[in-house]
Structures are given as structure tokens and as C-alpha cells.
Records
---
Amino acid sequence: MKLRIEDIKDEGVEISLMWSRVSLSAFMAPNDPYEIDFSEPLDVHLIFKKKPNCVHVSGTVKGALIMTCHRCLDHFSWILDLPLETFLYDKSYVDKGVAEEVELEDKDLEEEFFDGEEIDVDLIIAEEIFLALPQVLLCSEDCKGLCSHCGANLNRESCTCKRAGNSPFSALLRRKHLLPLTR
Ligand SMILES: [Zn+2]
Ligand SMILES: [Zn+2]
């Protein structure tokens, strides 16, 4: 959804919405490496407040995403509970160099720009989700992954390849540093 700046009154605007996968898909790369899916729409609550040169956005994004584990390729539920805070600067102020004079209350807070007339609310939410994604997503810290030989999911089953790897002979080779140490 879009929010027009002129619709933000002095007391600010509160927006609560259920955010679905359709809204996110517009911002996803064609070959999305995360294969993000939703079990249910996300619960988004945002407050927009006008400041002299910018719009202050704060709120939360909550819900669960269905993600693919990078190690075992299983789908799992990834709980999302994101606090959101950002300052949106009007591009025209930035072009005039006014933004440089703005003292930010917290330098670590994000700064974004908008065209001065309307705010792309979906873009803010999508960016917040992408920023929250870790580079490697695991279904659990100790996910055992897939057997590199037979492809068995080692979280659910053991395979004979693993046993062969533990034979006295391989232990000997390992002692001679010919095989990498197993976990
Ligand atoms: Zn896993
Ligand atoms: Zn195997």
C-alpha cells in the first residue's frame, strides 16, 4: 500500500495490516535463494509521524515465514518478531543539502528516501524482512544436514555411508591426516 504524506496528520498515522506473500513477491528476485513462503499473513503495525524534514516510521512486523533450511533443505517455520524504526527523508530536501544539517537522534537508525509525496509502505516492510534474514538459515543450530554420498536427511535417518566412514581403516587414515576429522 501507499501512504500519501498529506494524509499524515500532526498526531501521526497508525497503520495495522495483514501482510501476505503477494505483497512480498513484488520485491523478490526471480530466483529468490530463500524461497520465502508464508503460513499466514504477517501482522504489521506501523506509526508514521511527520518531522520537519522527514517522516519517522516505527512499529513491528510479526508472524512466521516458511523457509528452506540451507543445510538439510527441509521447510521450517521461521518466527519473525521485528522492531522497525526508520527515517524517511524527502529527496528534494536531500538534493538541496538540507538533510546534512539534520541531527539524527541515533546515528545507527536507518535513513531512507522517498519522493516527498507518498510512501511505499510495502517496500519498507519488505526491506525490513530482507535485512532480518541471516545469510545461512538453519532449521536448528545442530541440523545434521544431508549425507554428501547418498543424500539421506541425517536429522531423520542414519545411512550406511556414515558407518563406512567410521571403519577402523578410515580412523587410521584420519590419524595420518589423510581424511578430514569428522564432528
Ligand atoms: Zn536443517
Ligand atoms: Zn549416506
---
Amino acid sequence: MTASTTDRAALVSAIAAAHAAERGPLLPVLHDVMAELGHIAREDVETVAAALNLSVAEVHGVVSFYRDFRTEPPAAHTVALCRGEACQAVGAQALYDATCARAGSLGDDVEVEEVFCLGNCALGPSGTVDGRLHGRLSADRLDALTRDWR
Ligand code: FES
């Protein structure tokens, strides 16, 4: 989603206001900003800090601590490969390395992420392709799943 700076600030302010009376509103606010805007921009941190009467450093600290909070817009497509122990035991490392090595061939706007257990351990190597869970992944299966991106 794209929003002008003014629209974005107004939306972030409205999200913060909706949670301001809750106990511990910061995480719900940040989750809602992520859901609405796809990432938490620098100016969003300042807006949230002002709305919740927190310092910019406090809000930035939370945003930078949790890897699920993005500070840059997401790529058009995402491949997230599990690096958890069960998946590592069935070839996740090699799949991850191979996928990173050929990330450019998957498409122009593709991000390869690592995750640590998707709850699909029995069917590893596991991963998600644009948010959809897949098990028993291989380089060939990833090629097939991402064919339309090229
Ligand atoms: S370790 Fe990969 S899904 Fe659990």
C-alpha cells in the first residue's frame, strides 16, 4: 500500500489513538501499522512515539528488536525458508544457500528470508512462498512455485 506522507501520518496516528488507552499499546500499534502499511517507516516511529508519549528511542528499540517489524517496504514476492533444526536435518541449509545464490533468477523483486520453525517440521524442508506454507521443498519445487514471477 502506498500513502502520501500526510495520509500515512494520519493513519498511524489513528491506529495509535485506537490503542492508546490499552495497557501496553506499543506492540498492538506496531502490528497494526505493519498490517496496514507493510512496514514501519522512520516517520511512523516518530508519530507513534508522540501519540503514545514515548521517546523515539523506545519505539525504535522495539521496532529494531523484533525481526517481524520491517522498516523498508516489502519486496513484491517473498520466499521464507525454515532454518530450524528439523528442517536443517533434511537439507534446509543447502536449499537456503542454493536459493540465495539464485535469488535474482527467481524474479526482479524477490526477497529470500530465513525463519525458524513454521510448525511443519515433519514435512521439511519447509518454507513459505508469498505467505503460503509448503513442505518437502526442493530447488525444483521452488522453481515451479515461482515460475510466474519471472
Ligand atoms: S524446523 Fe522447520 S518447520 Fe519446524
